[in-house]
Protein backbone atom coordinates (compact mmCIF):
# COMPACT_ATOMS: atom_id res chain seq x y z
CA UNK A 1 0.00 0.00 0.00
CA UNK A 2 1.37 3.39 -0.94
CA UNK A 3 1.66 5.97 1.85
CA UNK A 4 -0.26 9.22 1.27
CA UNK A 5 1.80 12.40 1.19
CA UNK A 6 0.57 15.93 1.85
CA UNK A 7 2.80 18.75 0.62
CA UNK A 8 2.60 22.22 2.17
CA UNK A 9 4.04 25.07 0.16
CA UNK A 10 3.63 28.84 0.16
CA UNK A 11 5.78 31.92 0.50
CA UNK A 12 7.81 32.74 3.61
CA UNK A 13 5.65 33.45 6.63
CA UNK A 14 2.34 32.71 4.92
CA UNK A 15 1.12 30.23 7.56
CA UNK A 16 2.40 26.77 6.54
CA UNK A 17 3.62 25.76 10.01
CA UNK A 18 0.40 27.10 11.53
CA UNK A 19 -1.53 24.79 9.19
CA UNK A 20 0.78 21.85 9.80
CA UNK A 21 0.29 22.25 13.55
CA UNK A 22 -3.46 21.88 13.20
CA UNK A 23 -3.09 18.94 10.77
CA UNK A 24 -0.83 17.23 13.31
CA UNK A 25 -3.19 17.87 16.21
CA UNK A 26 -6.12 16.49 14.22
CA UNK A 27 -4.01 13.50 13.14
CA UNK A 28 -3.24 12.69 16.77
CA UNK A 29 -6.94 12.82 17.61
CA UNK A 30 -7.57 10.34 14.80
CA UNK A 31 -4.93 7.96 16.11
CA UNK A 32 -2.66 8.57 13.13
CA UNK A 33 1.12 8.36 13.29
CA UNK A 34 2.35 10.53 10.46
CA UNK A 35 5.94 11.20 9.51
CA UNK A 36 6.89 14.86 9.18
CA UNK A 37 9.57 16.35 6.97
CA UNK A 38 10.47 19.98 7.45
CA UNK A 39 12.74 21.86 5.11
CA UNK A 40 14.28 25.16 6.22
CA UNK A 41 16.39 27.62 4.24
CA UNK A 42 18.40 28.50 7.34
CA UNK A 43 20.75 26.39 9.42
CA UNK A 44 18.47 26.50 12.47
CA UNK A 45 15.34 24.45 12.81
CA UNK A 46 12.84 26.98 14.14
CA UNK A 47 9.65 25.40 12.79
CA UNK A 48 10.67 21.85 13.66
CA UNK A 49 11.16 22.94 17.26
CA UNK A 50 7.73 24.64 17.29
CA UNK A 51 6.08 21.44 16.03
CA UNK A 52 7.90 19.28 18.55
CA UNK A 53 7.06 21.65 21.39
CA UNK A 54 3.35 21.81 20.53
CA UNK A 55 2.63 18.29 19.30
CA UNK A 56 5.51 16.06 20.34
CA UNK A 57 5.86 15.08 16.68
CA UNK A 58 9.14 13.60 15.55
CA UNK A 59 10.30 15.79 12.70
CA UNK A 60 12.87 14.97 10.01
CA UNK A 61 14.73 18.20 9.39
CA UNK A 62 16.39 19.16 6.16
CA UNK A 63 18.17 22.43 6.84
CA UNK A 64 20.28 25.01 5.04
CA UNK A 65 18.82 24.96 1.53
CA UNK A 66 15.85 24.00 -0.52
CA UNK A 67 14.92 20.35 -1.25
CA UNK A 68 13.39 21.32 -4.57
CA UNK A 69 16.74 22.44 -6.00
CA UNK A 70 20.03 22.87 -4.09
CA UNK A 71 19.30 19.94 -1.74
CA UNK A 72 17.05 17.94 -4.03
CA UNK A 73 18.88 14.63 -3.63
CA UNK A 74 18.38 14.70 0.16
CA UNK A 75 14.59 14.52 0.11
CA UNK A 76 14.29 11.05 -1.41
CA UNK A 77 16.86 9.70 1.09
CA UNK A 78 15.02 11.25 4.04
CA UNK A 79 11.69 9.84 2.85
CA UNK A 80 13.13 6.37 2.34
CA UNK A 81 14.41 6.44 5.93
CA UNK A 82 11.11 7.73 7.21
CA UNK A 83 9.14 5.02 5.37
CA UNK A 84 11.05 2.39 7.34
CA UNK A 85 9.07 3.54 10.39
CA UNK A 86 5.78 2.73 8.57
CA UNK A 87 4.03 6.10 9.03
CA UNK A 88 0.31 6.35 8.28
CA UNK A 89 0.99 9.41 6.12
CA UNK A 90 3.80 11.84 5.41
CA UNK A 91 3.50 15.61 5.70
CA UNK A 92 6.19 17.69 4.01
CA UNK A 93 6.54 21.40 4.77
CA UNK A 94 8.64 23.11 2.12
CA UNK A 95 10.63 26.30 2.40
CA UNK A 96 8.80 29.45 1.32
CA UNK A 97 10.81 29.60 -1.91
CA UNK A 98 10.35 25.99 -3.04
CA UNK A 99 8.70 24.78 -6.20
CA UNK A 100 6.29 22.00 -5.20
CA UNK A 101 6.30 20.54 -8.73
CA UNK A 102 9.86 19.36 -8.14
CA UNK A 103 8.81 17.58 -4.97
CA UNK A 104 5.92 15.94 -6.79
CA UNK A 105 8.40 14.71 -9.39
CA UNK A 106 10.59 13.24 -6.68
CA UNK A 107 7.59 11.36 -5.29
CA UNK A 108 6.79 10.06 -8.77
CA UNK A 109 10.27 8.76 -9.52
CA UNK A 110 12.16 5.71 -8.29
CA UNK A 111 12.72 4.77 -5.52
CA UNK A 112 9.63 6.44 -4.05
CA UNK A 113 6.92 5.89 -6.62
CA UNK A 114 6.15 2.35 -5.43
CA UNK A 115 5.93 3.46 -1.83
CA UNK A 116 4.17 6.82 -1.72
CA UNK A 117 1.37 8.67 -3.46
CA UNK A 118 0.52 12.34 -3.52
CA UNK A 119 -2.60 12.88 -1.43
CA UNK A 120 -2.77 16.65 -1.64
CA UNK A 121 -0.61 19.64 -2.55
CA UNK A 122 -1.56 22.70 -0.51
CA UNK A 123 -0.33 26.24 -1.08
CA UNK A 124 -0.76 28.89 1.60
CA UNK A 125 -0.86 32.57 0.60
CA UNK A 126 -0.33 35.58 2.84
CA UNK A 127 -3.32 37.76 1.94
CA UNK A 128 -1.65 40.90 3.24
CA UNK A 129 1.37 40.62 0.94
CA UNK A 130 0.54 38.28 -1.95
CA UNK A 131 -0.52 41.06 -4.33
CA UNK A 132 2.89 42.73 -4.03
CA UNK A 133 5.01 39.68 -4.87
CA UNK A 134 5.37 40.22 -8.62
CA UNK A 135 6.59 43.78 -8.28
CA UNK A 136 8.59 43.24 -5.11
CA UNK A 137 10.52 40.28 -6.48
CA UNK A 138 10.77 41.36 -10.12
CA UNK A 139 14.60 41.25 -9.89
CA UNK A 140 14.47 37.54 -9.07
CA UNK A 141 12.76 35.94 -12.06
CA UNK A 142 13.27 32.44 -10.69
CA UNK A 143 11.46 33.36 -7.50
CA UNK A 144 8.54 34.90 -9.40
CA UNK A 145 8.32 31.70 -11.47
CA UNK A 146 8.43 29.60 -8.30
CA UNK A 147 5.60 31.57 -6.73
CA UNK A 148 3.51 30.92 -9.85
CA UNK A 149 4.37 27.21 -9.65
CA UNK A 150 3.19 27.19 -6.05
CA UNK A 151 -0.20 28.24 -7.38
CA UNK A 152 -0.38 25.96 -10.42
CA UNK A 153 0.66 22.79 -8.56
CA UNK A 154 -1.87 23.17 -5.74
CA UNK A 155 -5.06 21.20 -5.20
CA UNK A 156 -5.97 23.48 -2.33
CA UNK A 157 -5.04 27.16 -2.05
CA UNK A 158 -5.38 28.64 1.41
CA UNK A 159 -5.56 32.43 1.34
CA UNK A 160 -4.48 33.02 4.91
CA UNK A 161 -4.16 36.09 7.14
CA UNK A 162 -7.51 37.28 5.83
CA UNK A 163 -7.95 39.11 9.14
CA UNK A 164 -5.31 41.62 8.01
CA UNK A 165 -7.00 42.77 4.78
CA UNK A 166 -10.21 44.23 3.44
CA UNK A 167 -12.65 41.93 1.58
CA UNK A 168 -11.76 43.75 -1.64
CA UNK A 169 -8.17 42.47 -1.39
CA UNK A 170 -9.44 38.91 -1.05
CA UNK A 171 -11.46 39.30 -4.24
CA UNK A 172 -8.41 40.65 -6.07
CA UNK A 173 -6.32 37.71 -4.84
CA UNK A 174 -8.97 35.24 -5.96
CA UNK A 175 -8.98 36.79 -9.43
CA UNK A 176 -5.21 36.45 -9.75
CA UNK A 177 -5.14 32.93 -8.31
CA UNK A 178 -7.77 31.87 -10.82
CA UNK A 179 -5.59 33.05 -13.70
CA UNK A 180 -3.01 30.46 -12.63
CA UNK A 181 -5.21 27.69 -11.34
CA UNK A 182 -8.87 27.41 -12.07
CA UNK A 183 -9.34 24.00 -10.53
CA UNK A 184 -7.90 24.10 -7.04
CA UNK A 185 -10.21 24.61 -4.12
CA UNK A 186 -9.73 28.08 -2.64
CA UNK A 187 -10.41 29.00 0.97
CA UNK A 188 -9.93 32.22 2.92
CA UNK A 189 -8.62 31.65 6.41
CA UNK A 190 -7.52 33.12 9.67
CA UNK A 191 -4.57 31.26 11.21
CA UNK A 192 -4.80 28.65 8.41
CA UNK A 193 -7.97 27.20 9.89
CA UNK A 194 -9.55 24.85 7.36
CA UNK A 195 -11.94 21.96 7.58
CA UNK A 196 -9.51 19.07 7.96
CA UNK A 197 -12.05 16.31 7.40
CA UNK A 198 -11.82 16.27 3.59
CA UNK A 199 -8.07 16.77 3.69
CA UNK A 200 -7.52 13.72 5.87
CA UNK A 201 -10.22 11.62 4.19
CA UNK A 202 -8.85 8.20 3.31
CA UNK A 203 -5.83 8.47 5.63
CA UNK A 204 -6.26 5.76 8.22
CA UNK A 205 -4.08 4.21 10.86
CA UNK A 206 -2.27 1.48 8.93
CA UNK A 207 -3.41 -1.35 11.15
CA UNK A 208 -7.04 -0.36 10.44
CA UNK A 209 -6.84 0.58 6.80
CA UNK A 210 -8.97 -1.58 4.61
CA UNK A 211 -8.47 0.15 1.30
CA UNK A 212 -5.84 2.24 -0.40
CA UNK A 213 -5.85 5.89 0.63
CA UNK A 214 -7.86 8.04 -1.71
CA UNK A 215 -7.01 11.39 -3.15
CA UNK A 216 -8.34 14.19 -0.99
CA UNK A 217 -11.28 15.55 -2.90
CA UNK A 218 -12.36 18.98 -1.99
CA UNK A 219 -14.97 19.92 0.54
CA UNK A 220 -13.03 22.58 2.36
CA UNK A 221 -15.88 25.00 2.05
CA UNK A 222 -19.57 24.38 1.72
CA UNK A 223 -21.00 23.37 -1.62
CA UNK A 224 -20.90 20.37 -3.88
CA UNK A 225 -17.88 18.16 -4.16
CA UNK A 226 -15.66 19.20 -6.99
CA UNK A 227 -13.00 16.91 -8.40
CA UNK A 228 -9.69 18.21 -9.63
CA UNK A 229 -8.94 17.42 -13.24
CA UNK A 230 -6.05 15.17 -12.23
CA UNK A 231 -6.84 11.52 -12.33
CA UNK A 232 -6.90 9.68 -9.06
CA UNK A 233 -3.40 8.77 -8.02
CA UNK A 234 -1.88 11.02 -10.65
CA UNK A 235 0.08 14.13 -9.90
CA UNK A 236 0.07 17.74 -11.01
CA UNK A 237 3.24 17.45 -13.04
CA UNK A 238 3.28 19.46 -16.24
CA UNK A 239 4.89 17.99 -19.34
CA UNK A 240 7.48 18.19 -20.73
CA UNK A 241 9.67 17.57 -17.71
CA UNK A 242 12.44 20.09 -17.35
CA UNK A 243 15.68 19.93 -15.45
CA UNK A 244 15.14 21.37 -11.98
CA UNK A 245 16.13 25.03 -12.07
CA UNK A 246 17.03 26.91 -8.91
CA UNK A 247 13.76 28.11 -7.44
CA UNK A 248 15.22 31.50 -6.46
CA UNK A 249 18.44 33.38 -7.06
CA UNK A 250 18.63 36.24 -4.59
CA UNK A 251 17.25 34.91 -1.35
CA UNK A 252 19.69 34.09 1.45
CA UNK A 253 19.35 32.95 5.03
CA UNK A 254 21.78 34.18 7.68
CA UNK A 255 21.79 33.04 11.28
CA UNK A 256 22.74 35.63 13.88
CA UNK A 257 23.80 34.48 17.32
CA UNK A 258 24.30 36.39 20.54
CA UNK A 259 27.82 37.06 21.82
CA UNK A 260 28.74 35.01 24.92
CA UNK A 261 27.22 36.55 28.07
CA UNK A 262 24.95 38.90 26.05
CA UNK A 263 22.01 36.53 25.61
CA UNK A 264 19.66 38.68 27.72
CA UNK A 265 20.85 42.08 26.65
CA UNK A 266 18.49 43.06 23.78
CA UNK A 267 15.02 44.44 24.37
CA UNK A 268 11.94 43.76 22.23
CA UNK A 269 12.07 47.32 20.97
CA UNK A 270 15.70 47.02 19.91
CA UNK A 271 15.02 43.85 17.96
CA UNK A 272 11.93 45.27 16.28
CA UNK A 273 13.90 48.39 15.39
CA UNK A 274 16.64 46.18 13.94
CA UNK A 275 14.12 44.32 11.76
CA UNK A 276 12.68 47.64 10.60
CA UNK A 277 16.13 48.84 9.50
CA UNK A 278 16.29 45.94 7.04
CA UNK A 279 12.72 45.95 5.85
CA UNK A 280 13.66 46.73 2.25
CA UNK A 281 15.43 43.40 1.96
CA UNK A 282 14.26 41.37 4.96
CA UNK A 283 11.52 38.89 4.04
CA UNK A 284 11.34 36.80 7.16
CA UNK A 285 13.08 36.48 10.51
CA UNK A 286 12.51 33.93 13.22
CA UNK A 287 14.34 32.69 16.23
CA UNK A 288 14.47 32.18 19.95
CA UNK A 289 15.66 35.02 22.13
CA UNK A 290 15.84 35.95 25.79
CA UNK A 291 14.60 39.37 26.79
CA UNK A 292 15.31 41.30 29.98
CA UNK A 293 11.58 42.10 30.33
CA UNK A 294 10.32 38.47 29.96
CA UNK A 295 10.92 35.41 32.12
CA UNK A 296 10.24 32.91 29.36
CA UNK A 297 12.35 32.52 26.25
CA UNK A 298 10.58 34.27 23.38
CA UNK A 299 9.87 32.86 19.95
CA UNK A 300 10.15 35.89 17.68
CA UNK A 301 8.56 35.83 14.22
CA UNK A 302 8.91 38.62 11.70
CA UNK A 303 6.72 37.99 8.65
CA UNK A 304 5.14 40.42 6.20
CA UNK A 305 6.60 43.43 8.08
CA UNK A 306 4.94 42.39 11.35
CA UNK A 307 6.71 41.09 14.45
CA UNK A 308 5.03 38.59 16.75
CA UNK A 309 6.22 37.32 20.11
CA UNK A 310 5.32 34.13 21.93
CA UNK A 311 6.57 32.33 25.04
CA UNK A 312 8.67 29.27 24.28
CA UNK A 313 10.42 26.52 26.22
CA UNK A 314 13.39 26.46 23.83
CA UNK A 315 16.35 25.42 25.98
CA UNK A 316 19.28 26.27 23.68
CA UNK A 317 21.38 29.30 22.91
CA UNK A 318 19.47 32.29 21.49
CA UNK A 319 19.63 33.07 17.77
CA UNK A 320 17.68 34.77 14.99
CA UNK A 321 17.53 33.53 11.39
CA UNK A 322 17.30 36.33 8.83
CA UNK A 323 15.94 35.51 5.37
CA UNK A 324 16.06 38.23 2.76
CA UNK A 325 16.73 39.35 -0.80
CA UNK A 326 20.35 40.27 -1.47
CA UNK A 327 21.16 40.56 2.21
CA UNK A 328 24.63 41.95 2.76
CA UNK A 329 25.95 39.45 5.28
CA UNK A 330 29.01 41.47 6.29
CA UNK A 331 26.94 44.60 6.93
CA UNK A 332 24.18 42.68 8.70
CA UNK A 333 26.68 40.98 11.01
CA UNK A 334 28.49 44.25 11.68
CA UNK A 335 25.25 46.06 12.62
CA UNK A 336 24.15 43.12 14.74
CA UNK A 337 27.46 43.13 16.64
CA UNK A 338 27.12 46.89 17.15
CA UNK A 339 23.89 46.28 19.10
CA UNK A 340 25.93 44.64 21.85
CA UNK A 341 28.68 47.25 22.26
N1 LIG B 1 -2.48 37.91 11.89
C1 LIG B 1 -2.30 36.65 11.48
N2 LIG B 1 -1.10 36.04 11.75
C2 LIG B 1 -0.95 34.76 11.35
C3 LIG B 1 -1.97 34.06 10.66
N3 LIG B 1 -1.50 32.82 10.36
C4 LIG B 1 -0.24 32.76 10.85
N4 LIG B 1 0.09 33.92 11.45
C5 LIG B 1 1.38 34.27 12.09
O1 LIG B 1 2.33 34.49 11.04
C6 LIG B 1 3.64 34.05 11.45
C7 LIG B 1 4.17 33.07 10.41
O2 LIG B 1 3.36 31.90 10.41
P1 LIG B 1 3.97 30.47 10.05
O3 LIG B 1 2.88 29.47 10.16
O4 LIG B 1 5.21 30.22 10.84
O5 LIG B 1 4.38 30.71 8.55
P2 LIG B 1 5.24 29.76 7.60
O6 LIG B 1 4.66 29.83 6.27
O7 LIG B 1 5.37 28.40 8.22
O8 LIG B 1 6.66 30.48 7.65
P3 LIG B 1 8.06 29.94 7.02
O9 LIG B 1 8.08 28.46 7.23
O10 LIG B 1 9.11 30.65 7.78
O11 LIG B 1 8.04 30.30 5.61
C8 LIG B 1 3.47 33.41 12.82
O12 LIG B 1 3.83 34.38 13.80
C9 LIG B 1 1.97 33.12 12.90
O13 LIG B 1 1.47 33.11 14.22
C10 LIG B 1 -3.21 34.74 10.39
O14 LIG B 1 -4.15 34.21 9.78
N5 LIG B 1 -3.31 36.03 10.82
Automatic annotation (TrEMBL):
Pfam families (alphabetical): cobW (PF02492), CobW_C (PF07683)
Residues in CobW C-terminal domain copies: 251-340
InterPro entries xrefs: CobW-likC_sf, CobW-like_C, CobW/HypB/UreG_nucleotide-bd, P-loop_NTPase, Zinc-reg_GTPase_activator
Listed Gene3D superfamilies: CobW-like, C-terminal domain, P-loop containing nucleotide triphosphate hydrolases
Key words, A-Z: Chaperone, Hydrolase, Nucleotide-binding
GO molecular function, one term: hydrolase activity
Stretches assigned to coiled coil: none
Annotated GO CC locations: cytoplasm
SUPFAM superfamilies referenced in this protein's UniProt entry, alphabetically: Hypothetical protein YjiA, C-terminal domain, P-loop containing nucleoside triphosphate hydrolases
Reactions mediated catalytically: GTP + H2O = GDP + phosphate + H(+)
PANTHER family, per the entry: COBW DOMAIN-CONTAINING PROTEIN (PTHR13748:SF62), COBW-RELATED (PTHR13748)
Similarity comment text for this entry: Belongs to the SIMIBI class G3E GTPase family. ZNG1 subfamily.
Protein name: G3E family GTPase
Amino acid sequence: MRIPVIILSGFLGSGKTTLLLSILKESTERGLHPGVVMNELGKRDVDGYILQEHTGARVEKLLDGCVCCSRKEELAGALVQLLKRSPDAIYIELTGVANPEEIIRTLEAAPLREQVMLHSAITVLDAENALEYNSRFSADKQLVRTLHKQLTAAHLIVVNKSDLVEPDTLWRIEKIVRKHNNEAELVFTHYSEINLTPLLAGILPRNRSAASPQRAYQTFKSGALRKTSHEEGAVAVKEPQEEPAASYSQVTAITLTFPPGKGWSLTKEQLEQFFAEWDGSLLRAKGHVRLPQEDAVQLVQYAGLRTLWEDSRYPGQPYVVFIGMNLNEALLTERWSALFT
